[in-house]
Amino acid sequence: MTDLVTFGETMLRLSPPGDERVETADEYDVDVAGAESNVAVAAQRLGLDAAWLSKVPDSPVGRRVTSELRQHGVTVDVAESPDGRLGTYYLESGDVPRGNNVIYDRANAAVTTATPDELPTERVREATAFHTTGITPGLSETLFETTRDLLSLASEAGTTTTFDLNYRSKVWDPAEARAAVEALFPDVDVLFTAQRDAEHVLGRDGDAEAIARGLQAEFDFDVTVVTRGSEGALAAIDDEVYEQPTFEATDDHPVGTGDSFVGGFLSRFVDGADVPTSLEYGAATAALKRSIPGDIAVVTPGEVESVIDGATAAISR
Amino acid sequence: MTDLVTFGETMLRLSPPGDERVETADEYDVDVAGAESNVAVAAQRLGLDAAWLSKVPDSPVGRRVTSELRQHGVTVDVAESPDGRLGTYYLESGDVPRGNNVIYDRANAAVTTATPDELPTERVREATAFHTTGITPGLSETLFETTRDLLSLASEAGTTTTFDLNYRSKVWDPAEARAAVEALFPDVDVLFTAQRDAEHVLGRDGDAEAIARGLQAEFDFDVTVVTRGSEGALAAIDDEVYEQPTFEATDDHPVGTGDSFVGGFLSRFVDGADVPTSLEYGAATAALKRSIPGDIAVVTPGEVESVIDGATAAISR
Amino acid sequence: MTDLVTFGETMLRLSPPGDERVETADEYDVDVAGAESNVAVAAQRLGLDAAWLSKVPDSPVGRRVTSELRQHGVTVDVAESPDGRLGTYYLESGDVPRGNNVIYDRANAAVTTATPDELPTERVREATAFHTTGITPGLSETLFETTRDLLSLASEAGTTTTFDLNYRSKVWDPAEARAAVEALFPDVDVLFTAQRDAEHVLGRDGDAEAIARGLQAEFDFDVTVVTRGSEGALAAIDDEVYEQPTFEATDDHPVGTGDSFVGGFLSRFVDGADVPTSLEYGAATAALKRSIPGDIAVVTPGEVESVIDGATAAISR
Amino acid sequence: MTDLVTFGETMLRLSPPGDERVETADEYDVDVAGAESNVAVAAQRLGLDAAWLSKVPDSPVGRRVTSELRQHGVTVDVAESPDGRLGTYYLESGDVPRGNNVIYDRANAAVTTATPDELPTERVREATAFHTTGITPGLSETLFETTRDLLSLASEAGTTTTFDLNYRSKVWDPAEARAAVEALFPDVDVLFTAQRDAEHVLGRDGDAEAIARGLQAEFDFDVTVVTRGSEGALAAIDDEVYEQPTFEATDDHPVGTGDSFVGGFLSRFVDGADVPTSLEYGAATAALKRSIPGDIAVVTPGEVESVIDGATAAISR
Amino acid sequence: MTDLVTFGETMLRLSPPGDERVETADEYDVDVAGAESNVAVAAQRLGLDAAWLSKVPDSPVGRRVTSELRQHGVTVDVAESPDGRLGTYYLESGDVPRGNNVIYDRANAAVTTATPDELPTERVREATAFHTTGITPGLSETLFETTRDLLSLASEAGTTTTFDLNYRSKVWDPAEARAAVEALFPDVDVLFTAQRDAEHVLGRDGDAEAIARGLQAEFDFDVTVVTRGSEGALAAIDDEVYEQPTFEATDDHPVGTGDSFVGGFLSRFVDGADVPTSLEYGAATAALKRSIPGDIAVVTPGEVESVIDGATAAISR
Amino acid sequence: MTDLVTFGETMLRLSPPGDERVETADEYDVDVAGAESNVAVAAQRLGLDAAWLSKVPDSPVGRRVTSELRQHGVTVDVAESPDGRLGTYYLESGDVPRGNNVIYDRANAAVTTATPDELPTERVREATAFHTTGITPGLSETLFETTRDLLSLASEAGTTTTFDLNYRSKVWDPAEARAAVEALFPDVDVLFTAQRDAEHVLGRDGDAEAIARGLQAEFDFDVTVVTRGSEGALAAIDDEVYEQPTFEATDDHPVGTGDSFVGGFLSRFVDGADVPTSLEYGAATAALKRSIPGDIAVVTPGEVESVIDGATAAISR
């Protein structure tokens, strides 16, 4: 039995090395990037038995994704499509004032046609938890329906459902996103949302605590986690609200920070830990990710615990 | 006034360095690749004033293509699209028994929606020659129509029209291709075709000379050039047939050989040279290309002439 | 149940890029290399469910090996040691007259202390086949005993045992090797040996067929496969001898050719195919390997079948 | 008609990757670097039609420069010399306390023999503006004369002349530089100078405003721009003085900051914008440059405007 | 006659490029690293005639070390061993919160069997100074004895002996280290120790000055240098104590800072300079090292003096 | 006492990686290249105590050369010049029909002003042999005189003088070269010349043997070695002529083959071996060089002997 089953799109990420630009670079670094598979990798590396479900083209390009995920021990259980493409995105990074720029080329990916009957739904039913994000239902009408069906069957089977809102303005507009995700919320047990998405997409206001309590009340989540960038995160459960500051971390590799937070949180939460412990694990995993290139948190439990313990960064020899 | 105007799709080519595989490589080399722009670059570098018309996304990815083509002096005159993507292809190369493998990801490129009113058609009317290939009309219904219209208006304006059949089995099947290109042939003055495409797509048989004469007779081309891989090329004009063997060349970088042949041929032909001279220039340019990475013939007139003169490859110092 | 379980040492391979030298290079390419894991990867990629058993240090260096093997789908089931190191080897490659030079740094690797009680022996008992090589018992007295015990328990459990002689002159001398492997032969069902090792280590003479029949007779193997470098391979089974020529292949990446042959052979043989089919698959896998960097045959069934079918290496597009 | 014509030397810049040292590196990154061509590229990318005049050797090394500049859309109109070399410089960069070290190897470059009759002087006459720097007249007696003649004929033709003092202590001493540039000032309309050059070379004192007003008064410039490193810039025009602070920016890639400021300024000023707008554009372009490797500001108008608008550097997706 | 003779182990350092991880990188940068050879290189580059004695395998891997050290002008006088290996270490670097992680693979290096009769002891006798560190006697019983013998014969010959405590927790525990180094102290003239090692290994307490005076008193050193990381260093000599703050420096390349301090100090001290001058030189060399990749201070006297003079890091051109 | 002292120019060689072109590459590999230092390195690595005299700029660029030569153990004894540059050359390599193209940028190198009083002429007097080439006197009038003086003082001191004609058409024309080198011949004991240079520059005809005997007779050399590319070499000494065929070797890295031949020859000849032995060593060293990137023969005596023994290129493990 799998501890955590995830479902979603994973793309090839193409990025010019160092501070180079997409327009002028002669080579691109290749990484594997997907909100749900990022979570699966972090959770697997931190102790869970995690799986990733999706649909990919039956080609070397599709295998570029599946083999990298398997490398981290994640169980890859995907439909392989004779047609369709793999979504890609170009990431360009630079220091101030440039920042990070993402150019999506993800339309018509094979995954956008994935239906439940192509997927190993038994894995979802038998898992302890099922995770997906608000990106997936935005990618196609089919994927909205598949996401809804998977959440529903997980719910029926008693699998805990966790959902990261993860709004992407280059995928859809706030109104579309709100309608879609609110239609899914009845089958969601644990919600993760950035405070800015809660405001911008779900129309919430007030401080983070108010937002968490409001969502909790309206949608009856078991746990509602609100992240606030450099100001840390906060979780509402029953009548309690727990706060977790961020750990000090570089700005070198910010892409994937949020997924690493969720992966770290779930690695403890799905294993039965309480919410404060899970928050702390999530925050430490997110901090480590920021020092690691690519989308994926290549971390170990020992490293996460060192961050929590505040171990210094002196050379260990 | 431009000597040679070309029209077609140009893609990003992503290839693992050296003999690496797409599935396992951590970086891909980035090149710019398009049958018509390859021809434009070769012709420009060899002395013509060449232009490339197309439609690209208004993004760093689109500019990756336009800036590289401009680097070789080609006039880039493209519609920039707020939507749409740039086609890409993955190229994996290996020595025997692996060979070269191409994985296209070119559906829905911005260029597939290009219509004549978006393009600087005055350039076509005023040019000495207009060149496109049998790939372009295969990419979308719109592009078939645009190709037809551009050939037609070139024809009306007295611009010499040149066309490379360039059949791609991953784009369409032979019957579709035949119907489309034969519909375009009435406005074509100079045809380039590989012997295997003439057989497989156009249903021709006999030896290369018979094929050239047969096509000449049926479609009333001014010049019909039939290429035969390592066996060289042959051109029919009026009652004459000229043969041109290949020059000795490595197998290191074969992609783009055909386009370099056409570019080298046109660099002389459009400048008024006779067919045997043009064939020789084409064959020498093609030979040089095989020693140069990427899709593009980064050559000089002096180098082409050295190949024709049979200069030895000793170290020049 | 696993189809094929393998056991042995896997090292980090450090090699200067291109034709550079170990003495002067400023970076080394990193690959993962082990005779038995090479076989496991080839067999897994070609359709079997394969596992690799070993012992590695519990460190990022140990994980460098396990994560790369998992990437190809192999089940990695290893003891993790708090002490001990990972064996490494330096590989320097050059064209004629340099050739390939291997410098081992493998003494005292964690695996040299591996005992059966640290290993998942149930996997061996339940597998269809168990594979190891003549390198493993040469690495330490402990490993000789562990190899013997694993072959013995496999034999008792009815698991087919396969063994590649794989003599390494930098590990031990021929007399030591002969004594050790002949002590293991009673529990071996399928033997692979290079003709030169049969001569040099086992003291055989005559042509390859005579050698195969002689070994068969003396040690009562079910199948005896004798490889002859560029002259192909030959297998004796019952009263039959089958010959298999090599497929044409480059000399670019020869390291790992032999393991790829065994992996390809076993991918069919363990699946129930007859010996001629298995030989052909082995030879085609070996040919493909020679075009692929590293120790590992990153191949697909389709590619192996193309080599068997003699598909040409023209650009496929 | 060209908006902005520039004239000067462009060199190959050879720099060890990352923090490596010239003495020990095994490869050097290759960039194209010239004060005037840097300005032309920035201005072209930001909307002007810009040209660069110079003299380069007729060789692949010369073409290394011209093709990179053409890539950004700049019109390259150069004399090609059968003799002479291309100037190079070695750039070594390191963090504190190392800093950046430049080693010039620019003596006897082909450009040092460039005379007006080798250059397309009609372009200068017909342009809206002509730009050069105080480096050019320091490179040879011939170049001093050519610079003087081009400024003079621009002036006569009604072309606005702009001049960046750009003192280089490795080219000449302050007294030589002062005599030369003051001899050119009568034909200069817009002067750019660093405050430290105004002090050290032109013998000015007082604060930046006093310096600007003093130069304005003495040499009758239309506009006098004084830059003050991290303290921003200031421009005197008629009776007004405008100040422009710098935008926040990294120290990663400082080489080329000054040229980017001038290029950004001219992209608006030559297009008719007022001085405050031009200063702001210059400062934003300079800030962006500091995040981009090489000498050249690979920027877009949208990026410059984002900096001006103070858009945050969060990941845009 | 050599000014400074050093003795100790030098390893290959293997580190993933940039921020990559050992577990996932496909190439490792190769550097040469040894506490004593680092000192020899710094001292040689800063003006001494320095030598390094050791024992290395007679192989390309051994030559990887000796040729890099010779490159800096150091006299390499080593025993070459037909057996044995070269020690290696893996270094993984990352920004906060990751820090630097060292994984040693140094057991059984050829140097661990080095005895005085294999080494050119005449060099030690004839040198002005002899330097080794507290790492060397920790590597094997043989090396403890060899270190003791070399210090003893240096002492007898009137060669100044200098010793850097350099405690390594991955080599031995504090009690073992204390017993060993205290047994060597009678033959040591100049001691270098980090304050934390003095506390942790030698059981000292109080502030740095108290520690220096206490060690001085107990072991009768001529000079006792106590380093305090970012707080600078302090030296006791006779009745005087001199303090030296650190120079401002990046955290980019911290490995080797301590050895560079010692090398810079000795470059002046062995040449006859007083202690304050030597401290200043040491601190400036250490600061420069932090901006330079690898273990070795690739510096020049001019650069060290610029740091001392507080020259700004503006671009020098 | 040095066995072999050499004198000449050494340049930085800048070459695009792989098959890339100078015009389009974004990085150049950096190598150190000089006919005389190439000989010194080969001879040192093969057992002689060799030195290289020259004049280089006192800069990191100059040290780039001296540190790489020292790495191979060569004694570097050079004048360091505050002025002047280091010569460079661009090397572009490609397979057929491209070949190798050299673009020199060597005018005004610091070495062109080197006079005997700047050089350690005692080394020449005390050496067993002194070597230079026909490139050196072609670089400047001063260098012609210095070469003449060094040969003369070597001759007087009883040092064997060896001279490789090494005609460079990009340095001077055949008539100039002939006049210069014939003026030096009276002080030359051993001449190396390519057959084509003997014909083209010295006006010889007939076969290689006739040429060798003719030069021997006219200029009274002790030994006259004539090389014939792939046809091998031949040496005349007294009344004997010895022939040496080439060993089989790749065409991958041909630059430096001739210098490696001379270095290999001298490594034995200066050590007292007879001419046939020296020829064989030279030919084997030259063959190995062709498999090694850069200008320098990074070889060992064992490797040279393996080539002579015809050891196969199978993987040694």
From TrEMBL, chains A, B, C, D, E, F:
GO molecular function: kinase activity
InterPro entries: Carb_kinase_PfkB-like, KDG_KDGal_kin_Halo, PfkB_dom, Ribokinase-like
Signal peptide, first to last residue: none
Pfam families, sorted: PfkB (PF00294)
Residues covered by the Carbohydrate kinase PfkB domain: 1-296
Record key words, sorted: Kinase, Transferase
Family of the protein in this entry: Belongs to the carbohydrate kinase PfkB family.
Protein name (database record): 2-keto-3-deoxygluconate kinase
Source organism (scientific name): Halomicrobium zhouii
